Amino acid sequence: MSKVYFYYSAMNAGKSTILLQSSYNYQERGMDTLLLCPALDTRAGVGRIRSRIGLEAQATAFTAADDLLAITRAVLSVRKLACVLVDEAQFLTSAQVYQLTDIADDLRIPVLAYGIRTDFQGNLFEGSLRLLALADNIIEIKTICHCGRKATMVLRVDSSGKAVREGEQIEIGGNDRYVSVCRRHFKEGRASS
User: Fold this and answer.
1) Which domains does the chain have, with CATH numbers?
2) Which is more confident, 130 or 49?
3) Is the Cα dihedral 125, 142, 48, 97 positive or negative?
4) pTM recorded for the entire structure
5) Which residues contact residue 66 at a Cβ distance below 8 angstroms, ignoring those fewer than 6 apart?
6) Alpha-helix residue ranges (DSSP H) falling in the chain
7) Residue 88 catalytic?
8) What is the mean pLDDT of residues 173-193?
9) Are 92 and 131 in contact (CB under 8 A)?
10) What does the pLDDT read at residue 56?
11) Can you tell me the mean pLDDT for 30-52?
């Protein structure tokens, strides 16, 4: 039986690096993969997954309106797939997470989804919430806070490095806008030591 795996962490833990390495491992053994990423994340370009350490690959970009099961079936009509990998899985809709379970259950293709668990206010993203509920395996990828403890939360910061507590849940950004911290420093709003 194929499974849905949810790999989660705070930002800058290496999720995209691990995703790209997993895809490479399949491909090195002659097995094809389907990489999916949200179209709204354009930091590396639409339909591109890039890690902070420089690894990158082309991916199929999807919007909230897209059916991931239908996309996967369309790809299967032209090539065999060994695995589906999803970057920035926190941006999935509930329906799309359910579609990922259909890929695993009906098409018997493993799904590896990588994303952030909570937003800058400590609330679960819709995609993460549904993955935590429906994934067969839930795996934490660890990173560290500036104090050396495990970082489990994400602070959104302004241009002067001060914590931002209000705003839209989704604002695409990198190290210039977000800092991974432990729960204590999240509550204090302290992005650095």
Assistant:
1) 4-142 (3.40.50.300)
2) 130
3) negative
4) 0.92
5) 96
6) 15-28, 68-76, 94-105, 126-134, 183-188
7) yes
8) 87
9) yes
10) 84
11) 89
